[in-house]
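note to self: dont lose this again. the chain is below, predicted strucutre after it. 527 aa total, dont forget to put it in the shared folder this time
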Amino acid sequence: MRILIAEPIAQEGVTRLRAAHDVDERFGLDPAGLIEIVGDYDALVVRSQVQADAAVIAAGTHLQVIGRAGVGVDNVDLDAATRAGITVVNAPTGNTIAAAEHTLALLLGLARKVAAADASVRRGEWKRAQFQGVELRGRTLGIVGLGKIGVAIADRARGFEMHLLGMDPYVTAEQAALHGVELVDLETLLDRSDAITVHVPLSRATRGLIGAKAIARLRPGAFILNVARGGIVDEAAVADALRSGHLGGAGIDVFETEPPAGSPLLDAPNTLLTPHLGASTAEAQVAVAEEVADQVLDVLAGRAARYAVNAPLLPPEAASAIGPYLPLAEILGQFFGQFAGAGVKTLTLDIAGEPAAYPSAPITAALLRGLLEQVTTERVNLVNASMLAKARGVTVVERRSPDAGSFSALVTVSGTVDGRTVSVGGTVANGEPRIVLLNEYRLDMEPSSVMLITHHQDQPGIIGRIGGLLGAADVNISAMHVARTAPRADALMVLALDDDVPESLAVSIRSHEALIDVWTIRLGGDR
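---
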């Protein structure tokens, strides 16, 4: 078979591919040139610059696999590849150590003012007192996201004798403790940390996660580190806090716009800025090349790839039957993760009615994709869903039944959180997902990108008050459903909104004495 490597990768990866197949290295091809030749190849390997878009995929009539030598796959059209039956693989673990070490390099650089001291010496100065630093020993590091990189940082920071806090809704306290990390919520982490580092994907839920309100909770003189994704940390808010002296420093490797022309961080004091170097070590480049090469070889040999980014196509009959329930399952996973509000160890997935006659693995994978994609940088699919869930301590129990009651099909996910059972169920009507069950409440509602849910005492005026607060904040309601257990008992209201709900507005809604709980559910995302 023939393999086209369209961007340079470490020679170790090339050697592995050449040992089994014919390999051509063609760098610098323009889009037309790539389209002209890609039809002659069975596999295509790229990094981040070459665009494997729909036109390239359409021209790749013999392609079986596209390998992305790195983590992100923004330059590969996943939908087009899946429709064409092409497996897309990436290399999500090869840069783990490099990113962890770079994070700690930034932390050490800030603590000892290395960059500023170096510049001073080069200017012919000798101002030792001006560059007095602080020790890491005994200080508290808060790690937002305990995936592979977060855990690697924790393991290494223990060597500096730091106290470690971690926030991750899908890691148990027991798992965190294995790495010397105390698991806490985000507010507690912010309140207690001398430095924080973020290692979560960029999504609607995490964009601006570390903004002005979060920064205000940090101890005076705290450090902020970002070697994950630009946009998770609000650059303007960080710059303001650096200028005011509330923050002691910021080590930033990734930016909302790259290169970061015009970023307020460029002229802010006490910064250590690097040009997206988290994965830029010789060892990481070798590991990434070998990881992607091994998977390309697996696919060409008819084996499952460990880090396939897109799920393999289903047989036509199963795809037709199960296909409509995959978006539903992903929505249920996203919804459940936010509605439950905390990690669960065991999820029960009930598949009833029409889809119960077919393999449940694709529906389970779609559910886990929705549940986990907000907290892991790896894409969840049929190949790796169970592995990623297991790594986060999540077990899925699948149950199938031909009887869906009054529905032709019903998919329900449930789990126990802090001693209470949480469940979300949905169906497909006229080809569109519908949410029909929230705990013991029955409803029928089309999911919206933003949904406000209130659990409140059933009393006159409460619905009007919430609507008035939303209206005053210029948040438009597009749909509403109210369910209750009994008159004047308690009720659940679900509002589909055209606009997001600011935290200040959620606090105002929650302050009413009749309110028991409030959730803002955000579906979809940047990814």
